[in-house]
Amino acid sequence: MEGQVIANAFQNAYWGFPIALYFWLVGASAGSFVISTLGWVFGVKKYKPLALFASNTAIVALLIVPVLLIIDAGKPYRFFHLFIFAHWSAPMVWGSFLILTYPIAMGFYSFFVHKENQLWARRLGILAIVLALSTHWYTGVVMQLNPARLPNHTSVAPLLFLTGAYVSGIGLLILCLWLRNFLVTVTARVSPELMADMARLMLYGIVFDLFLLGNEFLQMTYGTGEERTILYEVLLGVFRWPYLYLEIVWGLLLPLIILVIPRTRRSLNGVLVAAFMTATGVYGMRIWWVMASQYYQGHF
Amino acid sequence: MADRLYGMGGVSSGKGRPGRKRYAMAIDLRRCTGCNACTAACKTHFDVPLGEWRIWVMETEVGKYPDTKRYVLPRLCNQCDDPPCIPVCPTQATFKHPDGFVLQRYNRCIGCRACMVACPYNARHLLPDHRRDKRNPRNVADKCDFCVVRVTRGLAPLCVTSCTGGALIFGDINDPESEVARTVRDNKVFTLRPELGTAPQVYYIGLNESIADPEFAFLNRSAQLRERYATFKRNSEVGGEMAGNIDESDMGFFGLVRQGLHNFGTFFAEAPKKFFRGLY
Ligand code: SF4
Ligand code: SF4
């Protein structure tokens, strides 16, 4: 039907850049914790030396999260309502308990890794890795369980979030390790070979992320009119920068190219550039994922 | 208290329960003139802040000049029978009253805005800190509550009493003799976005379904509406709680960076104030 809307209420988009940053931080934390557990939980010996640093990076990233969330709420002093009035059907309540317990478990894990207590490091590592994955799973679920927000309402959401977490966490960790190398003694430095090995793990994540994105793209291309409208907006319209350029080109395709060419994938510079691109590119995904559907829906 | 329903995967009100009230509204669009008396009455009575609405009128022009027709569509919370806003609220601040109202407990709400993201009808808003009367709730979620305070005292909601065309019909739909029950029974009625399964309790007569649609509303904004929307968004930072507001005309690379920094800037600049305003 031909016509135009000439008057309507203006709607705010209530979740924005800070919430996207919060998703990014939870993800980066979970991703770098996965690397931390490779040595002590999964028995990959060469990763043992960086377990403590990776775990501490994850803790620091996660400690910023409650601060962001509390100052984002309209009533910061009421944050404890989440626990005393917990409404169990709300994903946000699941997340609150996860965000509370996950850093504690990581803290204990770090402690036992520091004490080189293999048995307890392993036990706490398993607990913390489950909490890490759940914490990030829940951020996907928070977006997923809104039936009216079409691009978010997909069961791929938690997987997309977890894959983004995995790659951005490794990316962030590689950068932090590189910076750390300037500050520690020669013997404590992490070798470029190990970083290249981490980049290889990141590459698997990038490929899987592209696969998921491809599926999402297919679903939206063959989807309802609303889905196609939103797809246009994220691909070529208002959200082209976060989605197309930042997430796909900058965050996935270019690092993929860098990490498959043998010369660049073995050079430290190549690995660092790919790590930086991936870590920042995932923020693009968080931005459009949080804001695009609100932007679209806000016009109704 | 015991009757309050917080719903996980489905909340039903007093549907078909004899002796139970179940309030609903019918809006006869053939009678609505788009005068906005309902909006004005509601705005003044509830001190609804600038930029927020409990009820508003959406207007659409169909056809090409000179063969045009204007459609008006009053919009408010649909007091859904299966509302997506309730299960996602982490503190049970919003709940379904068995008489049909979806209500808000200001003293529980933490202002997390999950309900606003979940509502498919944009019926919710966050009350800002600057209210005309400081005793009114601030920094918490709010929405149309079918004027529960008036209705429980035997009065009709304000929008209904102020409606100049007599387009708004309100009452107990469980009572087969009530005006609203007869209207809904005897007319072809529509609800908004029925495909979402929210079971809205605001029924429209004469709704043009192809224009009461988010996709239509998105794709067919008038140029003036776009411009006014952009201005509204540029000026609507409320302590970062609306930090998702973007000016769509400025979303190139630099625009994105600028808007991101601006939104983060207000978010962090307002953060310390949040701990001192309105305290708990
Ligand atoms: S219209 Fe929105 S706010 Fe009102 S009951 Fe339905 S989902 Fe909740
Ligand atoms: S803003 Fe308030 S009412 Fe809405 S979900 Fe959060 S706590 Fe519940």
Highlighted features:
heterodimer, A: 300 residues, mainly alpha, Formate dehydrogenase/DMSO reductase fold, 11 helices, B: 280 residues, alpha+beta, Alpha-Beta Plaits, four-stranded mixed beta sheet, two-stranded antiparallel sheet, 8 helices, 18% strand, globular, binds iron/sulfur cluster
Beta-strand residue fraction of chain B: 15-25%
Gyration radius of chain A, to the nearest Å? Answer: 20 Å
Each distinct ligand: iron/sulfur cluster
Q: What is Rg of chain B?
A: 20 Å
Structural class of chain B: alpha+beta
CATH class designation of chain A: Mainly Alpha
CATH topology category name of the largest domain in chain B: Alpha-Beta Plaits
Beta strand count of chain B: 10
**Tally of discrete structural domains of chain A:** 1
Q: What portion of residues of chain A belong to β-strands? A: under 5%
Query: What name goes with the CATH superfamily of chain A?
Result: Formate dehydrogenase/DMSO reductase domain
How many individual domains of chain B? Answer: 2
The helix/strand series of chain B, from N terminus to C terminus, equals EHEEEEHEEHHEHEEHHH
Write the CATH fold name of chain A. Answer: Formate dehydrogenase/DMSO reductase fold
Strand/helix succession of chain A: EHHHHHHHHHHH
- Any low-confidence stretches of chain A, pLDDT <50, length ≥5? none
- The total of beta strands of chain A comes to 1
> Residue share in helices of chain B?
25-40%
Task: Explain what you see.
By secondary structure, chain A is an all-alpha fold. Chain A contains eleven helices and one strand; from the N terminus they run E-H-H-H-H-H-H-H-H-H-H-H. Chain A has a single domain, classed as Formate dehydrogenase/DMSO reductase fold (Up-down Bundle). In chain A, 74% of the residues lie in helices and 2% in strands. Chain A starts with a strand and ends with a helix. The radius of gyration of chain B is 20 Å and the shape is globular. Chain B has two domains: 23-217, 2-Layer Sandwich (Alpha-Beta Plaits), CATH 3.30.70.20; 222-274, no CATH class. Chain B has a four-stranded mixed β-sheet with strand order 8-1-10-9. In chain B, strands 2-3 form a two-stranded antiparallel ribbon. Chain B is built from eight helices and ten strands. Chain B has helices spanning 37-46, 114-118, 148-151, 158-162, 179-186, 214-219, 223-234, 253-274; strands at 23-28, 55-64, 67-76, 94-96, 102-104, 124-126, 141-143, 168-172, 189-190, 202-205. With 280 residues, chain B is of the alpha+beta class. The interface between A and B is large, with 66 and 91 residues. The site of one iron/sulfur cluster (SF4) has 14 residues of chain B, from helix 2.
